[in-house]
Amino acid sequence: MSEREAPQPLPAGDVAAPPAYEDEKPARQLSGWVGYVVAAGCVLLGLSAVYQVFFPLAQGNQFALILFLAAVLPLTLLCYRSGLSLPSRWRSSEPKDRPDNPTPLDWVLAVVALAACLYPVLPFQIGDGGGGFDEFLGRQGTPGMIDVLVGTIVLLLVLEACRRTTGVALPIVCLLALGYAYYGGYLPQSAAIAHAGVDWDQIVSSSFLQSTGLYGVPLDVAATYIVLFTIYGAVLDASGASRFFINLSFAAFRRSRAAPGRTVTLAGFLLGSVSGSGTATAVSLGSVCWPILRKAGYPKENAGGMLAAAGIGAILSPPTLGAAAFIIAEYLGVSYLTVLVWAVAPTLLYYLGILLAVEIDARRYGTREVDVATGSAWRLLGRFGYHLASLVLIVVLLAMDVSAVRAVVYATAAAIVLSYLDREHRITPARLYAALATGVRGVLSVAAVCAAAGVVAAMITRTGLGLQLNSILVNAARSIAENPTAVLILTAIFAALAVSVLGLAVPVTASFVIAWVIIGPALQDLGVAAPAVAMFVFYFAVLSEVTPPTALASVAASAITGGRVIATMMQACKYALPAFLVPFAFVLTENGRGLIGLRSFTDAVWTTAVVALAVAALAVLTGGWMIRRAGWPERVLCAPAAALLLYLQPVTIAVGVGLLGLAVAVHLILNRIRPGVDEPLSAIPDT
C-alpha cells in the first residue's frame, strides 16, 4: 500500500530566533523595541564584516577583533537567558506574555561588556600611562592595574556568555586552564604536569592584551569566515533553497522502500550548506521527513538515528563544512579550497556508510513505499536549480584563487540576485535585513565559544601543558608496545578517545582547538603529516556529537520522533560508524594520506575504493544484512576484514579482501539452510 504525502516547505528563517550555526541553547524570542535594537546591531555587525572584506581596518587585525568582540559579547548577553533566579526587585517589569526580554541585570552586563571590550581602543585609559590602541599594545607583557582589572572583567563576561549559550562545561574547562596556569607552581615538581606558575597579570596579558587568547585564531575565524558563511546560509534559506533541497531529495527517490531513507541522506547533505549545524540540520530534516519515515514503517529510534547521522554529516561535507574547518585552514596556513579537497573522499565514504545502512534497514524492518507528491526531479531542477549556482560559484572562485571571504560575499550577492527568479522568495530589502539579522544572531554563540577556546589554547601553550600531555600520550602507548607501528596505532586510539571525551563536554569548535594543541603534536611527532592530524582531530571532534551520553543531534531527533533517547543515540552511532574508523586510515599509513588528497590522484582513487569495501564490511557488521539477513559467522568475519582494509597496506588489503570474500561465501552457504532469512525483523502494521 502506498501513501501520498507532500513535504511541507521549511520556514524561511525567523529573525527573533535563528537556527544555531553550532549547537547551542535556544535564544530569546525578543519582542518590541528590544528586538528592533538587537536586529539593528546584528545588521550593522554583518555589514561591517562585509565591508572589512574589501576595506580592512588600517589599525590591524587585533583592532578589528576588539571591535568584533565588543559587538558580539553585549548582543550575546541580551539574546540568551541567564538561567538564574533573581530577586523580584531585579526582575524585568515586562508583561508575563513577554518573558523573553532581557532583565535589567542583562542590560547592566551588556553595557559593562561594551565598555570593557572597547577599553583597549579608547583615547584615554585611566592610570595606565595614557590612552589609545598603540599605548595599549605597548603594555603587552607589562599590563597596568586597570588593564588587569578590565581584562579580568572581559574574561568573566566571555565565560558567562559561553555558559548561557552552550552550558557550564566549556566555562569550567576554561577556569581549570586558568587555574592550572596560576597554581601550577604549587604542584609537586616531580609531577609530570608541574610548571613554574604564571602570575595573574601575565595570564591577563596573554589572554587580553596580546594577539592570542581572546583575540587568537579562533575568534579571528569567527569574525571573518564564520559570520560571512552564516549570513550566506541565512540568505540562501530565505531565498527558498531549503525547501527546494528537500523537495528535490524526495523527487529523486520517489518509488522504493528505501527511498525515504535515501531522501534523508541526500537532504542532509544539501541542507548542510544552509544551516552549517548538525543539530539544526537534523531538526529541519526531522520536521519534514519524520512523517514520511513513520508512514514507511521505520521505528522511532531508527529514524531518529538516521536523522542525527545525516545532520552531523553537514559539518563534515563540502562546500561549507563546520566552523572548525576554517580554523584548520588558518592553523595550517592553507587555502580553504585545500581543506575542501581534503574532505571530499571522507565525505563520500561517510554518506556511503549511511546509504548502505539505509538499504539494509529497509530490508530488516520491511519498510514500505511512500509516494511523495513533489513532481519531476528534472522539472524541479529546471525551475529552481539556480539555488545550486551560488554553491558552485564558491568552489569556482576558490579554484580561481579568490579568498574564501570574498568568494562567499560574491556567492551571497549571486543568491540575492537569483532569488528574483521566484516571486514568492525574492530577497527584498526587508528580507535581506531580516536575513542579515538572522545570520549574525546565529554566530553569537560561536564567537563566545571561539573566544573561550582561544583562552584555553593560550594557557595550554603558555604553561607547556600541550607538550607534557603529548609526552604522556606517547609514553602511555610505548609502555604497552615497543614496535613503532603499534605505538602509532595505540597513540591514534588514545587520541581518538581523548577527543571524543572532550567533545562530550564542549562544542565542536572548542573541542578541535583544545585537542589540536594537545593531541596534534603527539601524532606529528610520530611522523603523521599535519593535514592528516588536523582532519583526524576534526572528524572526532564532530563525531562526539552523535556519541552518548550528550549527543545533541540525537537528542533533538528523538524529541521529534518520540523515540527513546539512548536507543536513538545508539542507532546514530551505527549509521556514523564508518566515519569513526575512516580517520584512522589517513593517519596510520602513508597510503592513507591519499584519502585526503596528499598523494597522487591515482592513490586517492584506489585508497577510496579499498576503504569503501571496508565501509561495506562495517555496514554488514552493524546492520546484519548482506544479500539476505546475515548471521553472526558472516558478521564476525567482517570485523577483522574492515580493520585490515583500513590499514591500506598491500598485505593487509589482500587478507582483508580474503576475509570479506570468505564472509560472502559463508553467507551464501548458510542461507541455503537457514529458513526465513528474507523476513523482516518485526512485522510492521499497515497505517
From TrEMBL:
Residues 153-582 form the TRAP C4-dicarboxylate transport system permease DctM subunit domain. InterPro entries: DctM, TRAP_DctM-Dct_fused. It comes from the Bacteria. Coiled coil: none annotated. The chain crosses the membrane at residues 33-51, 63-84, 105-122, 142-159, 166-183, 222-246, 305-329, 336-358, 388-421, 433-460, 486-519, 604-627, 647-670. Keywords: Membrane, Transmembrane, Transmembrane helix. PANTHER family: BLL3936 PROTEIN. This is C4-dicarboxylate ABC transporter permease. It comes from Mycolicibacterium goodii.
